[in-house]
Amino acid sequence: MTPVQLLLSAAGAMAVGVAVAFGVASGTVLSLLTQATIYAIFALGVGLLLRQNGMVSFGHALYFGASGYVVAILLQLKAMPAEWAVLVAIAGLAVLAFVVGLVIVRVPGVAFGMLTLAIGQMAYLTASRSRGLTGGADGMSIDWPSTLFGLPISLITKPAGLLLVSWGSLVLALLLLALLLRSRFGAITEAVRDNEERARFIGIRTLLPRAAVYALSAAVTALAGVLAALNTGFISPESLHWSLSGVALMMVVVGGTRVLWGPALGAAVYFLAKDVLGDHAQHWMAIFGIALIVVIVFAPEGLSGYLQRLWTRRPSAQAVAPAASRTTPSTAPSTTPATAPAITH
C-alpha cells in the first residue's frame, strides 16, 4: 500500500472506532473491547519481533508490566508530571530493551526464547518481593492526576473514552510501523531475518537492526502496559508473569504475522472466544487450544494470512475466467469441404 492508502485506511479505522465507541451503549461490551484493543497492541509488539527478526519471546510481559510500575512509582514519588511519566516509561524501556537486545539477539532459536523467559521471571520475582517499592504481591494503586494530556481523567477513564484512546493508539502504532517497515530499515531487517550471513556478506551490520527491532517491539508492548494501567488504575506482579507473554504469543499464532495487523486480529479472536466460550464451558482454554492446533496445521500463516490469500486469489480468478473464455478453441464442426486425396496411377 502507498502512504496515501495507509493514511486513508487509518482514517477509516478511526472512524470505525468512533462509531463503535458512541454507538455501543453497554459499558460491559465497551470494557471488553478496550481490553481486547490493549492486548492487540501487546500482541502487535510480540508479533513485530517475530515478523522482522524471526524470534519468539516469552518475556515481553516484562515491558508490559514494567511500564505500569514505572508510571506508578514516578507518580507516587511526585517526580514529574503524569505526561512525562508516561513518555519516560515507554522511552526508558525502549532504551533498556535496546541495550539488552545488543546481548540477547546474538543467541539463536529456542535459546533466545528461554533467555527472555529467564529475564522476565527475574523481573517478576523482584517485583513480588520488593514490598517497599512495588507493594510486593499485593501490587500498588496508580494515583493518576485530574488531567492527562490536557483532558480530564474522568473523561478518559469512561468506557467510551478508554476505548477511543486505546483504539487510537492501536491505529497510530499500526500506521507508524507500516510506514517504518516500508523504508530502508524494513528492507534491512527482512534481509537479516531471511539470511543473516548473506546480509553480513553484502556489508549490512546485522546486530544493530536486530537490537533496534527488539527495542521497537518493547516500546509497543510498553505502550500497551501504560494503557492497561490507565484502564485498571492498578498494577501487580501478575502483569510481569510469563503466562501473559504466552497469551500474547497465542494471539500472534492465531492472527499470523504475514500482515502487520495479524496479531491484532488474533487478539480480537482470543477475547471473542474467551467471552463466548467462557459463558458455556468451564475449561474454555482447552477448546481454544484445539482451535489453535487446527490453525497451526491448516493455516500456518494465521487467520490474517489465510484471509489475504483468499483476497488475492479472488481478483486473479476473476481475471483468468474472461481470458480463458477468449482463448478457448471453438468446438463447432467445420463447414469447409474436405479435399479428396489425389489418386496416382
Automatic annotation (TrEMBL):
It is found in: Cell membrane. It comes from the Bacteria. Keywords: Cell membrane, Membrane, Transmembrane, Transmembrane helix. Residues 321-345 are annotated as: Disordered. Its main location: membrane. The chain crosses the membrane at residues 6-25, 32-50, 56-77, 84-104, 110-127, 160-181, 211-230, 242-261, 281-299. It is a multi-pass membrane protein. Pfam families: BPD_transp_2 (PF02653). This is Branched-chain amino acid ABC transporter permease. It comes from Leptothrix discophora. The lineage of its organism: Bacteria, Pseudomonadati, Pseudomonadota, Betaproteobacteria, Burkholderiales.
